Amino acid sequence: MKKNHTSRIALAAAVASALVALTATAADQLNAAQLKEMFSDKTVSATNAENKTQTTYFSADGKMIQKAANGEKKQGTWRVDGKGQQCITWSGSAEVCSTVVARGDGTYQRLVGDKATVIIQKMRQGNLLDE
C-alpha cells in the first residue's frame, strides 16, 4: 500500500510540474503588439534548428532580408496574424507562422506548432546586415 501511495505522489508531482511548465510557456509567449514592436525595423541574430547562424532584417513595412553565415542573402515578407503569431514568407515558399516565446535568459525561441525552429539571441535597431 505504501508503494502505491508513493507512486501516486510521484505522479501528482510530475503532472503539477508539467502544468507549471505549460503555464510558464504560455505566459512567456509574445503577443501581437509585442511581436510588432520587437521585430519592426530590427536586425535579428539567430541560430536555426541546424545550429547555423543567420542575421535577418525585419523592415517596418513587412519586408525582410536574411543573410546566412556564408554571405548569401534571401528576401521575404513578414507579418503578425490575429492569433499573435509571426508569419514569414520567403520568396518562392509558403507562409509559415510561429509563436515566439521568451526563454528567460534574454533570448527567444520561435516555435512552429510545438517544434522549436530558431533561437533569437540578439536584436538591434535598424538594418545592420552589412556591418
Description:
The protein has 131 residues and is of the alpha+beta class. Helices cover 27% and strands 42% of the residues. The protein folds into 2 domains: 29 residues; 95 residues, Lipocalin. An 8-stranded antiparallel barrel has the order 1-2-3-4-5-6-7-8. The longest helix is centred in the first third of the chain and has 27 residues. The chain is globular and about 30 Å long. The termini are far apart.
Query: Could you spell the SSE succession in H and E letters?
Result: HHEEEEEEEE
Characterize the main sheet: 8 strands, antiparallel, barrel
What fold name goes in the CATH topology slot of the largest domain?
Answer: Lipocalin
Instruction: Report the CATH architecture of the largest domain.
Output: Beta Barrel
Q: Count all strands and give the number.
A: 8
Structural class: alpha+beta
What distance lies between the first and last C-alpha atoms, to the nearest angstrom?
Answer: 67 Å
Could you say how many structural domains there are in total?
2
Please tell me what the overall shape is: globular
Total of helices: 2
Radius of gyration over C-alpha positions, nearest whole angstrom? 19 Å
| Uncertain segments | 5-25
Strand content: 35-45%
CATH level 1 name of the largest domain: Mainly Beta
Q: Helix proportion of residues, in percent?
A: 25-40%
Mean pLDDT score, rounded?
83
The strands making up the biggest β-sheet line up spatially as 1-2-3-4-5-6-7-8
Strand and helix map with partners:
Blueprint: H1 2-28, H2 32-39, E1 42-48, E2 53-58, E3 63-68, E4 73-80, E5 86-90, E6 96-102, E7 108-112, E8 115-125
Antiparallel strand pairs: 1-2, 1-8, 2-3, 3-4, 4-5, 5-6, 6-7, 7-8
